[in-house]
Design goal:
6-carboxytetrahydropterin synthase activity, Tetrahydropterin Synthase, Chain A, four-stranded antiparallel β-sheet, binds zinc ion, 6 strands, alpha+beta, EC 4.-.-.-, binds the ligand Nc1nc2c(c(=O)[nH]1)N=C([C@H](O)[C@H](O)COP(=O)(O)OP(=O)(O)OP(=O)(O)O)CN2
């Protein structure tokens, strides 16, 4: 099996609702997303000869997915008062609501599923929350 890897980063803020400690406050990370996709066979002719897929396509899709989350405050639905959310939105802030706690683990599954929906045979997705801490999602066999 061949495994291809592409990575991209985005800068966004989050907080962990219900967390006891500093991560309960709004703070930012440079999130680094490493996506790995698999393929059994290489193309035998044409532009893709010797390739599973074109890195250019994979890079473009990973970058688009990641850029969609850049420079935002990413919050779990229901963890911020509507009035606060509305004020932030009215003041032009980019708020992304997601239906899960914004941890590295949850993001790794989330980005895995986005790439899967685009048709990739995803092997695993790793999300670095800091340069030294990451979580990886892959399907059990
Ligand atoms: N298993 C997980 N644990 C934690 C997660 C997570 O996603 N998965 N996330 C957090 C917080 O988001 C927090 O921002 C991480 O902070 P911390 O580990 O403290 O990272 P720092 O780089 O800020 O650490 P310093 O030691 O203060 O430099 C918490 N846990
Ligand atoms: Zn954090």
């Amino acid at each position: 099996m061949y495994i291809l890897r592409a990575e991209h980063s985005f800068d966004s803020a989050h907080f962990l609702s219900g967390y006891e400690g500093k991560c309960a406050n709004i703070h930012g990370h440079r999130w680094r997303i490493v996506a790995e996709v698999a393929g059994e066979k290489l193309a035998s002719e044409g532009q893709l000869r010797g390739m599973v897929i074109d890195f250019g396509d994979l890079k473009r899709d990973v970058k688009k997915m990641v850029d969609d989350h850049d420079h935002a405050l990413i919050i779990e639905t229901g963890t911020m008062r509507e009035v606060t959310l509305n004020c932030l939105r009215e003041d032009g802030f980019n708020i992304i609501e997601i239906p899960f706690r914004p941890t590295a683990e949850e993001f790794s599954r989330y980005f895995y599923e986005i790439l899967e929906e685009k048709g990739y045979q995803v092997k695993r997705v790793t999300v670095y929350e800091t340069p030294t801490n990451c979580a990886t999602y892959e399907r059990g066999r």
